[in-house]
Amino acid sequence: xxxxxxxxxxxxxxxxxxxIHIIAILLFTRGFLLTRTELPHFSTxxxxxxxxxxxxxxxxxxxxxxxxxxxxSCWTKPAxxxxxxxxxxALRFDFVAPSSFFPEKKPWMDKLPILQKLAAEDGxxxxxxKAIADPPTTSLQRLKGLTTGGLPTFVDVGNSFGxxxxxxxxxxxxxxxxxxxxxxxxxxxxxxxxxxxxxxSFPFPSFNVKDLDTVDNGCIEHLIPSLNEGQWDVxxxxxxxxxxxxxxxxxNTEPMxxxxxxxxxxxxxxxxxxxxxxxxxxxxxxxxxxxxxDHGQTLxxxxxxxxxxxxxxxxxxxxxxxxxxxxxxxxxxxxCGLNIDSQQLCIGSVExxxxxxxxxxxxxxxxxxxxxxxxxxxLFALGSGSLFPEAFVSxxxxxxxxxxxxxxxxxxxxxxxxxxVKRYIDMYSASSxxxxxxxxxxxxxxxxxxxxxxxxxxxxxxxxCIDGSCVSSLPALKKQIDMYLxxxxxxxxxxxxxxxxxxxxxxxxxxxxxxxxxxxxxxxFKRVGKFHExxxxxxxxxxxxxxxxxxxxIVMRACSVLSNSYILEEGKVAIFCLGxxxxxGLRYSFMRTKMLLEGTLLLLFVCVLRFIMEFGLSxxxxxxxxxxxMFGISQDHLFWKFLSLCVPILSLIVLAYLSQRYISGNVCxxxxxxxxxxxxxxxxxxxxxxxxxxxxxKLPPILQDIGRTCIPRVIYAIGITQLGTLVICQLLxxxxxxxxxxxxxxxxxxxxCTWSAGIILLSxxxxxxxxxxxxxxxxxxxxxxxxxQVAKNGTFSCATNHSLPVTQWSLLAVALFFCTGHWCAFxxxxxxxxxxxxxxxxxxxxxxxxxxxxxxFSLVLPILGLPLLVSHRHFYQETSQFKLSHSVxxxxxxxxxxxxxxxxxxxxxxxxxxxxxxxxxxxxxxPKYVFDVVxxxxxxxxxxLASLYYVDPVEDDSSQSNHNKDL
Length: 967
Prior knowledge:
globular; 967 residues
C-alpha cells in the first residue's frame, strides 16, 4: 500500500528552512557587521576653553577675514578665506602623477598636464599628493570619511544606492554652523548626505553609469559663473564622468582618455578664473583650490575593495596666496621626479582620513567631533601664506625664524587636534557598548600625557625667541610635533584594528543555528523519503561509492573557503571539482561502454567553461590583459569587433534552434509552446539589440535609441507576461495536471525559457555563449545521471543515485557565477546591467535588475532546472515498484541541493568568525560573507517558489494520469 502525502507536507520544510536561515543570518550579521556607534555630540567654538591648549595658544587671537560673516578665531587661526573643492570621482593616482613616476607609461597617463605644470612651477603653494583611502572604496563611504574624519563601516556599502543623511558631526555641518556659505554642484549623493546644508545646490542624478556627461556638463555649466559671483565660502563640484567611463569601458579606452582631457580643460578654466581675481583685495586673494578623487579604480573601472589601485587616489592643492616653504625637511617627505615638460616635481602623501581636520584647521572652524585624523603638515603649510606675510620680505636668517613661527603655529593646532581626538575616544569608550579595550586606552592615554607634559616647557622656551635666536628651539618643536603625531597615529592604528564591535555571542548563536539547519535538512530529507517505501531500499555498493565521492568533493570545496587564497580562486576550484567528477564519469562510461559521447562532451564543456571563466576573471585581475592580443590581433581591429558580435549571435541562433527542436519533437501544452516561442522571439530581439548597439554600424540616433531602450523593455514585458501566464495556468490546473515525465520536462523547459531571455540580455554578449555551454553541460549531467541506474536495472535510492548529479549541478552553478564576470566583491557587481533599457534611476527596479544579473546564471536557472534531473530518470525506470513519485523525488533533490549550498555558506560563516581580526576581513572575507548569505536566502526563496510551482500531491502509482490537456 503506497503512502500518500499532501502538497503541504512536501513543501513546508522549504519555508521552515528559509525562516531558520533568516534568523541565523540576522543574528550573525548583527554581531559581525555592527556599525560604529555614532555619538550625538557636536564640536562648538566654546569647547576650546576646556582644552589644555587654550591658554597659551596663538590661535586664540581674534582676526577679521573681511568676508562680512563676522568670522573670528574659533579653534585655530584661519589661514584661508575661501575653499574650492573639485572632486573627480574615481581619480586614479596615475591619472595625475607624471608618467615618469611609474615603470611604464600608459595611454591614460599625463592627460592632466595642467596639474603637473602648476605643481612644478610653484612647489611652495601648489602640490600633488598621493591620497590613501580606507576601504571599502564606495563613493558613499568615501564622502562620509572625507567629511567626518572617521573610518568607514562595512555595513554602509548597502546604502550606496540610497545614502542616508549623515547624523554625526562633520565638516559640512561645522561650516554651516559657523556661518560659512556652501554651494554644491554635481553628484546628487551630496544632497542625500547633507539635505539642508547648502546655500545653493545643483544636483544631478548619479547612478546611471552609462551616462558619462549629464553630471559633468551640469558642473561645467554652473562652476565658472559661481566662481565669479563669489556668494559662497566653500564651493564643491563633483564630476562623475571618469567613474562612469571606467565602469562601462575601462581605463585604457578612448572614452576615458576623452574625459581626462575634458577635465584638464575644466581645471585650466577654473585656475584662470581664480587667478584673475587673486590680486590684493580680489575675490580670490586668499582662496585655496583643491582637486581630488574620492577613490581610485582598477583597470576595468571597478572599485569597492582594498587593492592599491582602488585605495590610491590623488589630491592636488594650490593656494592663491603665494608663500615660501615653512616645512622643515623632517615633515616634508616627498618623492620627486620630472613632469612631461622635464620640470622638477615633488609629490607628497596624505591620508583621506586627515582631510576634514586639515581643512577645518585652515578655515578656523571646530574639528568634527568624531574625527580621528591628524592635521597634515604638507597641506597645512600650503595655506599658511596669509599668516606670515613678512616671510616674503625678510630672509636675513634664511627663513629660520619663519619656520619656527610656523612650527609653533602647527604645534598649537596639533595640540587642539590631539585633545579633540583624546576627548572623542574617551567619550566613545564611555558611550559605546564595548568601546576600546582598557589596556589600549591606557597606552594611548600615556602617550598623550607625555606629549602634554613636554609641551609646556617647549612653548615657554619658544615664546621667548626673537628673530634669529629662535633657531635653537627647532629641535624641541620637532620633538613636540613627533610626540603629537605619535599619539594621533596610535589612535588611528587602534581604531583600525579594534573599531568593529564584534558581538561574539550573537555570532556564535547565528553560526550554531546555521549548522543546526544542516541537521534539519537531513531530517527533512529522510522524512520526505518515508512517503514512499522505496526510500528504504538498501543502496547498492556502486551507489554508495558515488555518494561518498560526492560528499568528499562537497566537504573539500566547503573547507577551501577557510583559506583566503582559495576564496580568491573559488571559481577555479569549483571548475576543477566539476572536471574531476567529469573525468570520473567518463571513466565509468568506458567501463560500462555506454554514454561515451555524453561523458566526453561533459569534459569538453567543462574545458569550454574554464576558458570562458578566464574571460570573466580577467576583469578581476589588476593586470588585466586584453583577450584579443592572445590571438595575435588588436582589440580595436575590425575583425575582432566583428567576431565579438558574431559569436554571441550564433550562440543565440543555436539556443533558438534547440528551443524550436524541443517544441517540434515533444508533446507540449499549448501555453507552454507559446511561452517557448516567445522566448525564441526574445532571442531575435536580443540579437537586434546587440546589432543596433554595435560600433560596426553607423546607425541614426533614433535606431540606436530603439536598440538601447525600447528593445530591452519589450523583452522585460514579454518575460513578465510569460511568467504570469505559467503561474496562472498552474493555479487553474491544480490537481488536474498530468504526472508523467513529459509534462514535467515541458513545465521545466518553459519556465527556464521564461527567465533565460532576460538573464542573457542583462549578462551582455557573453551571456549567450555561457548559456549555450551551460545547456550542453546540463544535458550531459542529466544523461550521465541515468547511467548507474540503467546498469543496476532500475535499482533506486534517491540519496545515492541523485547525490553525484546534484553535486555536479551545484558545481556547475558556482562556475557559471564566475564565467559571467562576477566574483565575491562589490567591484564584481556589474552596475551597468541595472540600466539596460533604462536611463533614470529607480531604486527597486535597478536593484531587481542587478540581482537578476548577479544571480541569474548561478542561482535562478540552476534551481528552476533541477526538475530535469528527476524527470529524465523515468525513461529508464520500467519497474513501477521502484518508482518514486515526481513530487517526492523533486522535494528530495531540492533539499539535497539546498543542503550542499548551506554547507558552503556555513563554512564561510565559520571562516568569517575565525578570521574576524584578519587583515583582509573587510577586503575579502566580509564581501564573501555578504554574497554567500544573500545567495543562500535567494536560494531558499526560489526553492519555496519552485516547490509551489513544480511539486504536486503524491498519488498511487496505479492512478491514471491525464496527458497533454490543452487550455
